[in-house]
Amino acid sequence: GCIYAKCLNWSDYKYEFEFKLRKICLGAVLRAVNLSNYVMMQITPKGIRPHVLVNGGWMAWEANTVNMEFSEELSFEEWYKCQLVCDKNTISIKITHKKEKILDREWQLPQGSLAFAFKENEGDSKPITIPFPINLEYGSAGFRNFGDEKALVKNVLLEKI
Asked: Among 26, 39, 91, 146, which is most buried by a count of CB atoms within 10 Å?
């Protein structure tokens, strides 16, 4: 992943870019204080899967559970425009293609803490649950692709609101 370091202390901003999926998905990073703590909107052909990374531990939501499925799958051959607006505890998400609206939704940032289950070894039937406090009030933006995930981006604009 990569984040733009010059706006690590920004809280409310607009993040726009054009993208073309090449393989699997694209991760748009938001409110990143470092590469172990951030929000990510994972854009897949079928929809957007919000993720929160806290101290290196992931919490993810499926597109269908957060009402972010696309009515038609995105093409690996087309360019799309994405606009993400971080405003307090809300992320507004817009995806368009040639001025046609694909998605226009809001997602509320989780508050408080996230609980992660850890097993001491594979045979443990009862994992240990550890709560991690989360602070998603500020942080920079960037991109993440992992493993076979591939996408192209262009015309990136990040501006404070």
From this structure: 26
Q: Which residues contact 8 (CB under 8 A, 6 or more apart)?
A: 32, 33, 138, 139, 140
Q: What are 4-59's pLDDT values in tens digits?
A: 999 999 999 999 999 999 999 999 999 999 999 999 999 999 999 999 998 888 88
Answer for the pair 32, 141: CB distance below 8 angstroms, yes or no.
yes
Q: Supply the pTM of this predicted model.
A: 0.90
User: Which residues pair with residue 28 across a beta bridge?
Assistant: 41, 143
CA–CA distances in Å: residue 6 to residues 10, 33, 113, 140, 142: 9, 11, 27, 8, 11
Tell me what the pLDDT averaged over the chain comes to. Answer: 92
Sorted by sequence, the CB contacts under 8 Å of residue 129 that are 6+ apart come out as: 115, 116, 117, 118
Residue whose C-alpha is closest to residue 39's, from 50, 47, 25: 50
Q: Tokens 């269908």 sit at which residue?
A: 64
Question: How crowded is residue 110: how many other Cβ atoms within 10 Å of its Cβ?
Answer: 16
**CA dist., res. 21 & res. 73, Å (int):** 11
In the prediction, which pLDDT does 55 show? 83
Annotate 40-70 with DSSP letters as a single string.
EEEE-SSBEEEEEEETTEEEE--GGGTT-B-
